[in-house]
Amino acid sequence: MYKIPFLILILSFLLIQCTNDKQNNEKLSTFKIRISKEPSALLPFKRRGRAELQINPYIFLQIADFDPINHKLIPTLIESIPDEIKLDTGIHKGLLKHTLTLRKDAKWDNGTSISANDYLFSVKILLNPMLEIHPAIRNQFKNIRDIVIYKDDPRKIDVYTVSDYMLTKELVTNMEIYPEYFYDSLHLMREYNYKIFLNTPKILSQLQKVPAAKEFAKNINGTYFMRDNVSNIGPYYLDKWETNQYISLKRKKKWWGTKYKNNSFLKNNPDKILFKIIPDNTTALTELKNGNIDLLNNIPGIDFNRLKNDNSFNKMFDFYSPLSLRYSVIILNNRNIILSELKVRQALAHITDVDFLIKNFGTGKEKRLIGPIHISKTYYNKKLQPIKYDTQKAKKLLAEAGWSDSNHNGILDKIINGKLTELSLNFTIVGRQIEKNTALLLKENAKNIGINISIVTKNKKNYQRDRKNLKFDMIISNIGKDLVDYDPYPRWHSDNIDPGMTNLSGFHTDKCDSIIEKIQQEKNRTTKDSLYKKFQKIIYENQPVIFLYVPTNNIIVNNKYKITTSIKRPGYFANTAKSQ
Fold first, then answer.
1. What values do phi and psi take at 469, rounded to 5?
2. What is the pTM of this model?
3. Given CB 3.0 to 4.6 Å as the disulfide criterion, which of 28, 50, 265, 410 pairs with 271?
4. Measured distance CA(230)–CA(493) in Å, rounded
5. Upstream peptide bond of 570 is cis (omega within 30 degrees of 0)
């Protein structure tokens, strides 16, 4: 008579065990993502390409980062965002002081707490001239003039920056920090005072005499720390890297960030995040359909809409299309004698049918913009309206500028510097479909009003060479932005108009330069926003480039998962994925 109750007990136990196993399997899932190419390095200061941006944030954390939802700078490895205090006396007179206190519970992979020495080491890395780091990054961090660790608190540090740099708060907080014990176990960098690193020739001369310093640089510059040995403070660690196949990240079991439930960067929901390297888009889509990957992003708008409207497909997947932190633009080389004319540039803007591009080649959710400030910014100048597609207006502008078809060959011309000059331009592209579509549309519209546009297709190497040397008339660029305040200096100041520099259009005026310099130094939010709007008005009135639109980041996710998406790159956060 005891057999039945005992059997029920066993079955109940097995049922409970199966339920627990199912729940554990749902929680300990592997979230699979396609990346189009293999990253070159899993070390943020070495490489920040598209592939790296999709992987690095789960291994490496920034001291503070921009919240993916409200876009505000929030503390991650520090207790709070520091105030900026301008000093009027003492050895740091004229500088800004930022006091950082690192979280006591933030732990490295070996279980030790993050310390001020790790912060100091991390900045020294960026200033070490023996390391292969982009010069722009090194020059940016030279704005940090001193770092002082508190003697009575190894987690507290004062960081002193120049006062005339616009992103000082972001500079000292919005950066990755690296474990000194792992990358510099000999404490080699501790032997050199921080201020010596601000003098590049001096520190280089000293380091080159030290064999250990050469070995340190060799390890950082080679694969040793970029791939073979990867360690940091993020919620995941590098589990396995199979060349040209996949990269596997595994959740840390004793994860210190668990209690910070409202911080997206500290979540580690999936047990594993698997990045499958699939270069071909068609193959990637097949893998998505077959369930071999769970997330696909950067999908062309036409394909995204087609799949979204396919009933057999959309039953299995969720579709996201947040705006991206990028904008598309046709760069006009204002150094060209034809493009140096304002009315020619304005005419080209009026025959660029941006709405047609959005409707026929995008998702339809792309947003037009009027200048180099991203539409998401509070200081975007909404009073300025996008240039309308208007061929008659374009014809009128060219006629006013003296262009006519004097030889009746269908191409407008006029005498420039004593020579008959036809209104002919080259549009150089690499060959991506969106480039082809844009160039062909503009070529056809231009032909109808007497402008001859020749489409020149070059391989990536030659295209980049000509772009760098400013040997182009018109090119398309997809310019990436950040959530930090926009610094117009690199792309729009006259300091940067020479070959190899960043002002590709070559446009500049004294007034524009002056406003840019004021933007860099202004700390008052209201005054700064006013300067931004004046800057946008100057660019708008001069049309040195043709601004197109802010593209969407098109993401498809298996609907058994729920994820967080955002305008913040890469547009999704795999560590937030959870079963629905």
1. -90, 5
2. 0.87
3. 28
4. 39
5. yes
